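Troubleshooting entry. Yesterday's outputs looked truncated, so today I'm pasting the complete records for two proteins to confirm everything comes through intact. If either block looks cut off, that's the bug. Protein one:
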Amino acid sequence: MEKPIVGGQAVIEGVMMRGFGKVATAVREPDGNINVQVKPVNSISDKYPILKLPLLRGSVTLFESLILGIKSLSFSAQAAGEEDEQLSDTEMIATIFFALLLACVLFIAIPTFAAKFLNTLTEDHFILNLAEGFLRLIIFFAYIFFISRMKDIQRVFQYHGAEHKTIFCYEANLPLTVENVKKFPRLHPRCGTAFLLIVMIVSIFVFAFLGWPDLWLRISSRIILLPVVAGISYEIIRFAGRSKNSFVRLAIMPGLWLQYLTTREPDDSMIEVAISSLKAVTPEEFLN
């Protein structure tokens, strides 16, 4: 029997896991203990089943993951002793808004604005849109590269590696022990980093046929079409995560290679945290 999908995210000194209607965030506290917070999670798609349809579920999953991720980061910062208290609802909304605004500026507004200077080289709208897409990719790679050089982020990336290894062990139907988890690779085909790369590539093809209107209309059209891009990208990575086809595996290799920047090999204590998080959301019948 194929196991239900479990997803995760690295946080400050810990790992968040989501599955089986629950979300658990496990954090290594300054005294060495592992603090595990478990909460039920209900998707809006449970209330509105139409949102579970292909192409729609991707946008829902992306937005809900953003909210859960920020909540888990807030809890982890407090548990790890870096913040006095968790974010309030108002602060949470402000943080989400700022994150979305920053993403739009960095990956939409800047490359779209920069591409207009290529008008002196060509007036072909298709080529200009392709060039804009490649500028977006360059900015994305540069962003990943520079944050991967930060010392504090590198530790988070170690927990990212622990998350991937633990999920691999779960999917392989092996007991969740440190020794078993250590055997698995830290690169996972369903990683959020791989998803973001697919978003960048899919956006190139989607935006390539939109013509070349004025700057603000170009920026607006790309923001409006983000749910479409996210929906397509989600279906691709969902299929790739389950497929054993060699061609599919080859196609997702760039997303795996990118994880060499966004993951690091974890130590045993980090793996213990990831295991605690996954066990907290997984029913006994799915554990070995």
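Protein two, checking that the full record survives here as well:
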Amino acid sequence: MWKSPNGTIRAMLDGTVFRAPIVVKGIEPNVKTWKKPITIARHAYGDVYKATEMKVGGPGKAELVFTDENGNETRELIHDFKGAGVLQGQHNVDDSIESFAHSCFQYALDIKQDLWFATKDTISKKYDHNFKDIFQEIFDANYKEAFEKAGITYFYTLIDDAVARVMKSEGGFIWACKNYDGDVMSDMISSAFGSLAMMTSVLVSPQGYYEYEAAHGTVQRHYYKHLKGEETSTNSVATIFAWSGALRKRGELDENQKLMEFADKLEKACVATIESGKMTKDLAWITSIPNPTVLNSEEFIKAIALELEKSLA
């Protein structure tokens, strides 16, 4: 068995995951200034997730050593230990960073939103600065004119400045993050906007491949309850939006206007159902809509189907 199906697909497609909240009236963000979705673009390769770690038991010298293919060594002192401590070695590769940059710029052009990117290059003058330089070089060479034509901007800043700006913004932009930053910030965004079940998730590769998924995964606990014949109140919006997103993209690629319109109506049916006060238990706990109607999994899907039938008629 593969350790992670999503991780396997991501590695094969060399893609970047974009996640954005689904904004619905009655499910207000915890951050009062946020009016539009904030999309997190996470670089899902390397850094601390591929790090090598070591415990140091006592005094000694730690060095970073690189041996090239001809046997030449480059050494940098990490630290002269006077006692016990810990070590960690991280890496990334230019090819993956370039793919990350292309995916972010292409996706920004697809959805016509500004793109922010942030690292800590003032402290990490080689590692993080390499990310900054690659993004800028690719933007200047391949996307600057297209961004100007689309009326959108590319904005780079330090990660701490980006966090401060995000908290005071109205939203409506893509925030590209290195692996760890994206892991943390995507959870913050989803929680602050209401629910992981109210998030879109799409994997975009620089070759133009797309894979849509539910951000929350397989919901095992609810599935096992279902197998026992027990009633569940599973929020299916993220799964439905995965289908609608894929159908819309297929429509764009095939120039099939009817398919794109169907995808739009399917999403609007989900939103209209919730805004009418019909929702699953996870949303009923946090909604500002008075006296919501709590539906089980099947009832919720059928309520959305009724809304969809109205719009199709």
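Both blocks look complete. Sanity check on protein two: The chain has ten helices and 13 strands.
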